[in-house]
Design brief:
The structure holds two protein chains of two kinds.
Chain A: H1 6-15, H2 24-60, H3 66-71, E1 75-76, E2 81-82, H4 85-116, H5 119-134, H6 137-156, H7 166-190, H8 194-202, H9 207-218, H10 220-236, H11 239-244, H12 262-271, H13 279-309
Helix pairs in contact in A: 2-13, 4-7, 4-10, 5-7, 6-7, 7-10, 8-9, 10-13, 12-13
Chain B: H1 2-6, H2 14-50, E1 51-58, H3 77-87, H4 90-99, H5 107-119, E2 121-126, H6 129-134, H7 136-146, E3 151-156, H8 160-164, H9 177-208, H10 213-226, H11 230-244, H12 246-249, H13 267-291, H14 295-303, H15 308-337, H16 340-345, H17 365-374, H18 378-409
Antiparallel strand pairs in B: 1-2, 1-3
Classes of the chains: A mainly alpha, B mainly alpha.
């Protein structure tokens, strides 16, 4: 036994190396887990491939012309006119109205929660915001149609405001996006270290000055990301506009008349029994692909902003 | 006065700065109040529509259907069946009998049929809760003047019957049982698809993946998928599950022959579509839960000779499970509330029978709400409000169970 040299033990160990022992079960499981991780790539590829394929068919149809689609202002499938602007315009309008509500309100609530509210108040308010964020969008659609629209009609007159209008859809969409912007902004505000605030107080700054001139600029990347995610959410929002914004594409800049957004159009077209390979069927894929790319670009921008401009504190 | 002399030549302007501070404080506080008011308005608006006076006229006066002094409500099942047989055309009677024989229907169901087919109450006008409470006298006078035939009742649209009855096209007999069951079936397939793959992906990314380009792409991709609008998933589901995989989702390859679900627009297709939709949510939540399990636990496991998978299965997963389940419940409640993708996938507009297999046609609670909301008549708005209350109660109980789960089982290391 005493002769057992170091070399021998090493040799022995290498023959019994458990690390190298083939374990079929482990390998299979690891393969399955990798497949699960990779599955999301399939989903993205599936979206790009399926939507791209049908969208390509759409643009190959004799009635459709890419240039005309991008430049003309009439979307009337039954007479072969496919100008995207009426749909895109109302999408942008509802988004603009929603953001005009959600950005100032959302930021104010976030600043209030993070800088002003006592812990007790914060602990009651945050769950309320979570409840607001968890309500299905169809309920907001119902709210827009049965609450916001009558109010708008009372204020601006029944002959001015139509029953279906982009204004009320946009306003309610703002309420929908408010908790999203608030919680993302609040997260980045609370990530700003205490020491920065204390330093500013030490210099004699008031509470407001600390909040708006120290904390908000320090959290700006997170806030910008929140706004962009909010915009992307508003563009993709469907049920509110499907219920409240009206049916039928309409190229208008008035928030008081009905106009269909991209998402609203997709829902209405596919609501009936859609037959495959019809021009309507292919058009929703083209519109879907368009939506996918807009929101994808917005999401990538927001992630890039967070990565690029994030202030890292010790 | 002394302070002022120290900072002489420097105007600290404190009064104005403090005023500004107070003004903005009020602005911030008001914004918060506005947000809360919006939530309250939303709830009150729904409650307001779900209750109230309704004036209705019966096509046939129930009193005229009394037999030997027994009013319609107290008649036996046999009497009611006889009434149906004598009043309806034989074709309509046989059709009802073929759907389900009268012998196997309960008295309650037959009574419903009599009300629906013979008495046929028609809604004349509907009032919301607020006017019903404040102007009840006015309403009574108006109804007496304009519709002398009409009956006026204060009703709650949300009743036990509303939850337990199948869908019909008549506002008085409509219910949401079909829709609730449709939602539950759909969610089942959503979870069956998204839970294993989502948790698997989370384990892979947290425990196995090294920091190379492929895994970075997977991570970025998951974040991007979480931001894709839900309607895009609906279009994807239409292309893949409804069209390409039609033999699978319509059950043809399993030998299911059912004309109604031949086109693949089934519970299964809807569930899988929503599964893709909630997958990123489940992955992101599960990753967080797994990351919260401390390193020391894993090292202890390796120290006694466990393999990687043994460590993950016996130590990481049990400790991360409450977090994973909470995330899954949240994902499920998101899926239950989704409407747009299901409209695109092809939820049926009017079905009155419950889904009974993965290959059934379906409608879900949000779809039902959407349908009722889109109709111009007030009585359907009230039905939609009642259905919204059912949906919110369902979601609230799901979320409450998630919170309970988190508080009950979460361990701090």
């Amino acid at each position: 036994m005493a002769e057992l040299t170091l070399k021998d033990t090493k040799k022995k160990a290498s023959t019994f190396n458990l690390r190298r022992k083939p374990r079929l079960g482990e390998t299979i499981i690891q393969g399955l887990l990798f497949f699960s991780g990779f599955f999301s790539i399939f989903v993205t590829l599936g979206i790009v491939y399926e939507l791209g394929k049908e969208a390509l068919l759409f643009f190959q149809m004799p009635e459709v012309n890419l240039l005309a689609t991008l430049t003309t202002t009439e979307w009337k499938p039954h007479i072969g006119k496919f100008g995207i602007w009426p749909l895109l315009n109302s999408t942008l309008m509802t988004t603009l109205i929603a953001m005009a509500i959600a950005i100032p309100l959302g930021m104010s609530v976030a600043v209030y929660l993070s800088e002003y509210a006592s812990p007790g108040v914060r602990d009651t308010l945050k769950p309320i915001l979570e409840v607001l964020a968890g309500i299905p969008t169809i309920v907001y659609g119902y709210f827009a149609l049965t609450f916001m629209t009558p109010i708008l009609r009372e204020i601006f007159g029944r002959d001015v405001v139509q029953i279906y209008n982009t204004g009320s859809a946009g306003l309610v969409m703002g309420i929908l996006i408010l908790p999203l912007i608030t919680s993302m902004t609040e997260d980045s505000l609370s990530a700003v270290p205490r020491s920065l605030r204390e330093a500013a107080y030490g210099m004699g700054a008031t509470k407001l000055e600390v909040a708006l001139q120290i904390v908000v600029p320090a959290a700006l990347s997170g806030i910008a990301a929140a706004v962009i995610v909010g915009i992307s959410r508003a563009i993709g929002e469907t049920m509110i506009v499907a219920v409240a914004a009206g049916a039928g594409p309409n190229f208008t800049f008035s928030p008081f008349v009905g106009a269909e957004t991209i998402t609203g159009h997709i829902v209405r077209i596919s609501g009936g029994d859609l037959s495959y390979d019809s021009i309507d069927y292919n058009s929703i894929f083209a519109l879907g692909l368009f939506l996918f790319f807009i929101t994808l670009v917005l999401n990538i921008i927001s992630q890039a902003i967070v990565r690029r401009f994030r202030e890292v504190y010790e | 006065m002394r302070e002022r002399s120290i900072v002489q030549g420097f105007d600290n302007n404190l009064g104005a700065r403090n005023r500004k501070g107070v003004i903005w404080h009020i602005v911030f506080q008001t914004s918060t109040v506005v947000g809360i008011l919006a939530l309250i308005a939303l709830m009150l608006n729904v409650i307001n529509s779900a209750f109230g006076y309704v004036a209705y006229e019966a096509k046939v006066d129930p009193d005229s259907l009394a037999v030997d002094g027994t009013s319609l409500e107290n008649q036996s099942k046999e009497q009611l069946v006889a009434l149906l047989q004598s009043t309806l055309s034989s074709g309509a009677y046989n059709k009802l009998n073929n759907e389900e024989p009268f012998e196997s229907r309960s008295r309650e169901e037959v009574y419903q049929l009599v009300v629906e087919r013979i008495v046929r109450p028609q809604v004349v006008e509907v009032w919301n809760l607020w006017p019903s409470l404040t102007q009840a006298d006015n309403i009574r006078v108006t109804v007496a003047q304009d519709h002398p035939e009409a009956e006026l009742d204060f009703i709650s649209w949300l009743t036990y019957d509303f939850v337990s009855r199948p869908q019909t096209s008549e506002p008085f007999t409509a219910g949401v049982r079909t829709a609730i069951l449709g939602s539950l079936w759909t969610i089942m397939f959503t979870i069956l698809l998204a839970f294993p793959i989502g948790v698997g992906a989370a384990i892979y990314l947290e425990e196995y993946a090294s920091d190379n380009w492929l895994n970075r792409i997977i991570q970025t991709n998951i974040n991007n998928l979480a931001g894709v609008p839900s309607i895009v998933y609906g279009i994807l589901g239409l292309a893949i599950f409804v069209r390409t995989l039609e033999p699978f989702t319509s059950g043809k390859i399993f030998g299911v022959e059912n004309i109604t679900s031949e086109n693949g627009r089934t519970v299964l297709a809807a569930g899988l579509t929503l599964g893709l939709l909630v997958l990123p949510i489940i992955i992101i939540n599960a990753r967080e839960a797994i990351r919260a399990v401390p390193r020391s636990l894993r090292n202890a496991s390796y120290g006694v000779g466990a393999t990687k998978w043994q460590t993950v299965w016996s130590h990481v997963l049990p400790n991360a499970l409450p977090g994973i389940l909470t995330g899954t419940i949240l994902a499920a409640s998101r899926a239950i509330g989704e409407t747009a993708p299901l409209v695109v996938v092809g939820a049926s507009t009017a079905i009155s029978f419950d889904p009974s297999s993965p290959f059934s046609k379906f409608t879900t609670l949000p779809i039902q709400i959407y349908q009722w909301t889109s109709r111009p008549q007030d009585e359907f708005r009230s039905l939609a409000a009642a259905a919204i209350l059912v949906l919110l109660v369902l979601l609230l109980s799901l979320n409450a169970s998630a919170v309970l789960l988190r508080n009950r089982f979460s361990r701090r290391f």
